[in-house]
Amino acid sequence: MALSKAPLVLYDIAMRPPFAENCCSNNCWKARLALNFKALPYTTMWVPLPEVASTRRRLGVPACRKFADGSNFFTLPILSDPSAGVLIGDSFDIAVHLQRTYPSAGAGNLFPSLPARVTGYRYGDVALPIPLTERRDADGFGDYAQFNVEVDAAFSANLGMAARGTPFDPAWEEEIKASWAKRAGVRSWDDFKLEGAAREAVKKGMEAMMGRLWKEVLTEGGKDDGGVFVLGETPCYADLIVGGWLRLLRATLGREEWEEVRGWQGGFWGRLHDALEVYAEVK
Predict the structure, then answer these.
(1) Is the distance from CB of 243 to CB of 272 less than 8 angstroms?
(2) pLDDT, mean of residues 77-100
(3) Which domains does the chain have, with CATH numbers?
(4) pLDDT-based confidence at residue 157 (cuts at 50, 70, 90)
(5) Considering the entire predicted model, what is its pTM?
């Protein structure tokens, strides 16, 4: 299909105004990075967090994940592609749609073949209050689907230090905090506070997780050859998956801690984040 003349619409979560500066959903960022990689015209529809479920129902996009009790987890992103006549409600499916519908657009192929160190990466199962994507096969893109699952599990299991910096919209902040506390099974938002030695322990866990990802997967044995992408000079969707999580950390950590993260593994994470900046415009 030729490049879409009708702008696509990316539905993203409206956090603290200005929304474009504070968007922090890792999955919405994966979709945005993929859209910009493909150089497709699109606009962003900002949806307040308490209105995400009703928006998804109104558009007729079913939930793609479930909580442990079997109830639906309604979240974003959603992509509307008027030229193709589709609404897609999962970040991985959005990337697959963009590749199949606009294969040669922008920077080209989102899904080239991956090396064994990437396809073989396994973080392991984790029990979390927010359900993760479970899809591990994707009609020809199964290696990427599996990698997406494992990276999501790795970051989610080590994300405790980011909660307190979530940039909530003040208009909805108290309602959202109460809802998240209930969903996590804690008494109040104060139970998410992580300070002192406990915070340092969680930070060390995150650094260790990211160190393993850097050494075993994103580089060959931690070899610093100046490159930051898994395939060398050219990024692929595996890099965008990780990049979405880096965007979340940038938005939710304080400046000092974000600079720490950027500097881990000899500054690799800062270089990767900055190398993907060309695909990070919020439209």
Answers:
(1) yes
(2) 96
(3) 8-279 (3.40.30.10)
(4) very high
(5) 0.95
